[in-house]
Design the sequence.
């Protein structure tokens, strides 16, 4: 039996603008994980998937277009040799405590754990780069124009600075995925002081591609306005990197607030997200913003230890269905 887990992710700053070539910062979330268990199945049974959390059971042969089926098929094509969909008998059990469509990277975490579990079970060495690339291709098929930040932070499992390509040209009005020609910039980031973040979950599930599509359409109608908003988010993200490197938590808090204001202007916040952000700030959080695609999902608040209890309670009273406390450790980039 092979058991593999993959973490969720949290976007600290830069979401949406990252689709349009600006940088973003993301953190792996080891507190919430997806888990894949692989065992050999009786001969002739094929590849069977079991996802008890969502009460689904299917086979690769019956549902080849399912995202998990497609990923396993692409992996087998890559491995080649003796393995093929036709002669492999596996039982794959998918479980995850990461809420689906909740802004914490559930899809990319399941996909990452699935690729690692099946490749480990078949004794095939799959690099982080290959995992990230296969997950990115899968997200492209099912979510439209992903920036690539989710698959990257989950595959590398460390805080990252991510920028999809250095040759992005905002004035070339074509879908971002079409012009993604160069490799993204992926850099580990320096975090000089440990951070305590509270994640407040609105409980509202919103598929990533809906706000991403809406932003794309609005940008096409008002290119200058949206490009200037993305530039502003990119500038805030650069200052956030500096604040993290200098351990300046007060500045970090203000910059997170600034990023939230810009996300409101981009049009991806919601009444529920704003209520949680306001509640956290009222109780003394240093900063707060929505995280991920928006319209639902989660927000994050940067808190100092004495405020943790009060802010967590305020988030629950303001409607959060779940509050996660996460500690982000110091890093060194050397
Ligand atoms: O919905 P999430 O948490 O996967 O976040 C999406 C982040 C976006 O920047 C809105 C889209 C992307 O692909 O980067």
Sequence:
């Amino acid at each position: 039996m092979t058991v593999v887990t993959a973490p969720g992710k949290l976007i600290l700053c830069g979401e949406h603008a990252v689709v349009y070539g600006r940088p973003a910062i993301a953190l792996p979330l080891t507190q919430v994980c997806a888990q894949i268990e692989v065992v050999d199945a009786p001969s002739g049974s094929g590849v069977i998937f079991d996802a008890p959390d969502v009460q689904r059971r299917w086979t690769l042969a019956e549902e080849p277009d399912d995202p998990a089926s497609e990923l396993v098929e692409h992996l087998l094509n890559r491995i080649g040799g003796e393995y093929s969909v036709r002669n492999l008998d596996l039982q794959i059990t998918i479980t995850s405590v990461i809420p689906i469509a909740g802004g914490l990277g559930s899809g990319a975490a399941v996909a990452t754990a699935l690729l690692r579990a099946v490749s480990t079970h078949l004794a095939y060495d799959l690099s982080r780069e290959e995992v990230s690339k296969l997950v990115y291709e899968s997200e492209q098929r099912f979510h439209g124009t992903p920036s690539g930040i989710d698959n990257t932070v989950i595959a590398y499992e460390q805080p990252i600075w991510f920028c999809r390509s250095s040759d992005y040209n905002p004035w070339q009005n074509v879908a971002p995925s079409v012009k993604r020609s160069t490799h993204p910039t992926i850099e580990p980031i320096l975090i000089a002081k440990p951070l305590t973040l509270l994640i407040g979950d609105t409980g509202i599930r919103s598929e990533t591609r809906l706000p991403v599509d809406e932003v794309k359409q609005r940008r096409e109608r008002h290119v200058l306005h949206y490009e200037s908003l993305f530039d502003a988010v990119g500038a805030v993200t650069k200052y956030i990197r500096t604040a993290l490197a200098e351990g300046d938590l007060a500045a970090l808090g203000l910059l997170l607030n600034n990023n939230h204001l810009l996300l409101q202007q981009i049009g991806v916040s919601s009444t529920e997200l704003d209520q949680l952000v306001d509640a956290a700030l009222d109780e003394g959080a240093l900063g707060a913003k929505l995280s991920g695609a928006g319209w639902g999902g989660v927000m994050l608040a940067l808190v100092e230890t004495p405020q943790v209890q009060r802010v967590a309670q305020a988030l629950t009273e303001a409607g959060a269905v779940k509050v996660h406390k996460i500690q982000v450790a110091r890093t060194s980039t050397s």
